[in-house]
User: What shape does this take?
Amino acid sequence: MLSRANDPIAAIATAPGRGAVGIVRVSGRSVQPVIDAVCGRALKPREATYLPFRGADGRAIDQGLALHFPAPHSYTGEDVLELQAHGGPVVLQLLLARCLQAGAGIGLRLAEPGEFTQRAFLNDKIDLAQAEAIADLIDASTEAAARSASRSLAGEFSQEIHQLRDALIHLRMLVEATLDFPEEEIDFLRQGDAQGQLERLQSALAGVMQRARQGALLREGIQVVIAGQPNAGKSSLLNALAGAELAIVTPIPGTTRDVVRQTIQIEGVPVHVIDTAGLRESDDPVEKIGIARAWAQIAAADAVLFLHDLTRAELHDYREADEQLLRTLRAHAPAAVPVLQLWNKADAAVPPPGSGNAHGELRLSARTGEGLEVLRRRLLELAGWQSAPEGVYIARERHLQALRRVDAHLMEAAGQLAGRTPALDLMAEELRLAQNALNEITGEFTADDLLGVIFSSFCIGK
Assistant: This one.
């Protein structure tokens, strides 16, 4: 994409399908040839003009609003033309084709995914974290995620990163001044309170990391797999959590043959609940495929809900099978993935001795809803979610990885400073690496291949 960054581009900027309004967007160093050909008249900057959009033969393709945003006062920082027409797919395709035809002389081409936003980034209209927030705002699956993405788009996350960077630069200057002027009698580090600056920087970083982790939860959510023996009530639990009859529920063992997914919200956090086939030995080839898929989902889960059936808990064979299955499940699931044991059908049976909440297990009834609220709170605890403060902003895994590197470099710098004879050259290098990691978040130090990956995930027209 970067190799063709100077080409004028055009695309349909609204979602595919029929709608009341559709938008064709054009951006480049100059879009005047397209304005002249399609609109047939001059447009006042940033003022909507109602007019017919003309085809090559002079006949109207449609009538709508045309807006011209001269550079640099536009979304991309270039000249931008937006044509708002009726939202029929055929109309918009005709209008896009006409724009490409009219702009052939200036090299106008179809935009690639995310290319309008990439140009906004390259032209310093937004930084990289804000660019990612645009995609996150579009893709937000909960209100809390949308609000957090909006805060990131407004620059709140970037501002905190810049504050950390400024404090880090100030500390670097202090350390490097001491290295550059070792003969000076003034102890730069002690006078400048290098130790205090580093501690305050680490404390501020911890706050940013905590808010970023919460934001990553809002963006990604958590994947929760419901597992257990056949007829433990897994599908009923999925339906109860979702508040809809999504999975078929019957008393026949092995009813669920495939993976059933549903995303629910708990305090704004997306929770992707996955109902799986009952885990058991089976000769049915279709059920065996479902069981294999269940184990695959368990291996990739963020948390597993292991369902016991209270109505069968007193049966020796059932308890033995449950215990064996639980051991196998713990062996399949990654060590860091929590397995939460649930005792279902509390409305139909009394708990066996030693069950209930004695070992952190939860009694519930998927049929009546008993215990579901406790389960929801427990899922949030397992995910590490705290009551959403207004300061949470959306974040991505790459942001968290960069912040973890910053934290590691600062810890190394603190270790160098705490030595009997501080190794200031090594400390200065750790601080430099920490600053580079911060710069990666906002795009001030970012490889071109990373930009390609990030913007290719956007929709065309954005």
